[in-house]
């Protein structure tokens, strides 16, 4: 088995990548919306917004953004569970050492 530090590092990198992907989509949401509204041409802003929000690509963008956040959250949970497993293993070893001293 790999050392816990290596396992934690791999999970940490996976989380960082997933977090960056989610943040990128979240941070670009307003810019994408504005760009798509501008594509509607010279029409009232409320009409352009309504048109964009009715398009499948707006729904798809939002679904992709939510999925990316979900993936990042799952990666963070995995990272934390690895940390907890390592701590449990260390505690188990410490208990074993203490028990063997008592015998």
Walkthrough of the structure:
The chain has 103 residues and is mostly helical. The chain has one domain (4-102). It is built from three helices and no strands. The chain has helices at 4-38, 45-54, 56-102. The mean pLDDT is 94.
What's a quick, concise take on this entry?
The chain has 103 residues and is mostly helical. The chain has 3 helices and no strands.
User: Over the alpha carbons, how many angstroms does the gyration radius reach?
Assistant: 24 Å
Contiguous low-pLDDT stretches (5 residues minimum) are none
Strand percent estimate: under 5%
Which outline best applies?
Answer: rod-shaped
Number of helices: 3
Q: What proportion of the residues is helical, as a percent range?
A: over 70%
In total, how many domains does the architecture comprise? Answer: 1
Order of helices and strands: HHH
Q: How many strands, what sense, and barrel or not for the largest sheet?
A: none
The rounded distance between the terminal residues' Cα atoms is: 30 Å
Mean pLDDT: 94
Total strands: 0
| Helix/strand class | mainly alpha
Annotate the secondary structure layout.
Blueprint: H1 4-38, H2 45-54, H3 56-102
